[in-house]
Amino acid sequence: MNKPFSQDNKVGKLHTALGKDHLVLLRFDGHSSIDDLFEFNVDALSHEPNIDFNALIGTHATVELDSMSGDKSFFDGVVTEAQWTGVEENGNTYKLVLRPWFWLATRRRNQRIFHNMDVVNIVKEVLGEYSGHGDTTYDINLTRSYPELEYTVQYRESDFTFVTRQLERFGIHYYFVHEDGAHKLVLNDNMDDFPVIDQGTVPFYPIDGQHRPPEEHFWVWHPRRLLTTGAITMTDYNFKTPVSQMLAEQVGDAQYENGQIESFDYPGDYLDRSRGTEVVKLRTLQERSGDHFHAVEGDVVSLNAGCRVTVGGQQVPGILDEEFLCLRVEYSFKSQAYGSGDSGGDQYAYTAKYIMSPVAEPFEPQRTTARPIVHGPQTATVVGEGEIDCDEYGRIWVHFHWDRDKAYSMRCRVSQNWAGKGWGGMIIPRIGMEVVVEFIEGDPDQPLVTGCVYNGKNNAPYALPANKTKSVFKTDTHQGGGFNELTFEDEKDEEKIYMHGQKDQEIHIENDREKRVDNDQFETVGRDKSISVGQDHTETVGRDARHTIGRDVNYKVAQNQIEDYGKDHIHNVGNIHKQAIYADHLISVGRNVEQEVSGKMTVNVVESITTNTGKHTLMAYEKFTIKGPGGSITIGPSGIELKAPKIDLKGMVSMGGSGSAQVPTLSGAANKALPLVEECPKEGE
């Protein structure tokens, strides 16, 4: 029976979910960095040839290392890989890979939208979904303020990529702190908040043969400088404030030649110039953070990425008593072999390589995580309240087909065919429509609706392909069942423009309007029609004109009315024809005038009637009477009757025919201007 392995006297120990010393540590190496995931590779030994990997994968494992001073350091991680690697003299060998719980976020890709949140709350929401991996999974140790973002889109990227992209965007570091059985993610944006290692100061002693002092120290120190971009200029555009000055500039502090080379970029990822000033300052520091690096080797077990340390000991040019931040560590530890007679410990088994940066120099997270790009347009469904839902900019709510979290994904601007200051096109997509969405520079945070498409639910206004020759613009009455429509039919020999208005039509032309119809025109008005002409009204009809009026016609002419007929003018009046003329009435007839009255005719003249004619015939078929103040003349079937108190005849009188014996007397009286009635003597004379 094999003797059980024991790590009690070992400098390095391995603790796993399988239990004490079920797996013992042979070798430990790996790396950790600020703003990156650590990875620890562990070689382990066990008597068990068939370890249940299901009991190991996804659980925490911790490497424990003792320092020369007797302090313990822990390197905890989640077992993400386990492999049996063979059999050695003393047992079965296994390889484990430990990674942070945050690495689990690389396993989950997602597409979602965060509404009206700053970067801190966005990160909290994403990281909170991994809270089951340890008692305390993360600490937020931030001092700056961050803007609230209307929309932030995670698009086809892992939770890890999305979070790190946001942290790099706003200049937030992350690193890990380890303890026995757990580790913690820390967010930090201030150099002073990085922890100092317990020793505070670690000495530097150069390598002297094989000699190593009996204390943790550094023995290799190689400073390095790098020429970086020294100035950042950026600009951006905010559609809500389109005329705002957005250019922002920042120059770095490099003192060497060509240390202020400018980099210009657009868009700058900000909405106003004050925020732009902060952004270019951050981007400049991010560029300058690549300048001061120091490559170091040593055996300081407690020095991890994200810790500060002061260098003491022998003089290294430019670094003695200066404080440094550890940016990266590459670990290497090898335990002494486990043999049947082994009872000793591990000696001088731990070494590490470090990348350091002076605390006094700028250090911000590098922007290494690429923004996701939407390659080409997508479609989405218009959503919102009621039938039409838009804001003051005409933005509409859409729901992307990939958005699982919210019914309302985000408000999108809508492309119009024209967009001026108070003029242009304005068509707001309606709720339920499927719209085409494109993204400015492929940025999922900047959608733009560019069109609409039909689908199996929303059909075209006319059945297709039967009506494929029609070009149609048809609307839908808001909260009603009507529509307006303009349709063009392009079928050969059936070309037609059709217009339908559900209610009113208003046309306003500020100057001339010309309309031409080469064939017939038909106009039907269901009720009233009014025409108001400010000056002249001219109508020219090439042939006939017919007007049919169901009831009355009223004409009111403020001044003159002239009617000119080339031929006949016929009036047919079914009842009374009345004319009221308040001045003269002049009639000029080129030929004859005929009047026919079926009943009576009365002419009332206040002053006089004068008739001038070559011949004048007055004809009465039954009786003709002429009346005046002194008598009357009546011509009837039986003769002529004159009634007057006195009748004077002047001029020659000729009388013929077979009249009575009084005729000569009358004739003589007339010729001599004598009275027609002889005066008789009175009785008694």
TrEMBL record:
NCBIfam families: vgr_GE, VI_Rhs_Vgr. Keywords: Secreted. Residues 389-454 form the Gp5/Type VI secretion system Vgr protein OB-fold domain. Belongs to the VgrG protein family. It comes from the Bacteria. It holds the Pfam family Phage_GPD. Residues 471-579 form the Gp5/Type VI secretion system Vgr C-terminal trimerisation domain. This is Type VI secretion system secreted protein VgrG. Gene3D superfamilies: 2.30.110.50, 4.10.220.110, Baseplate protein-like domains, Gp5 N-terminal domain. GO terms for cellular component: extracellular region. It is found in: Secreted.
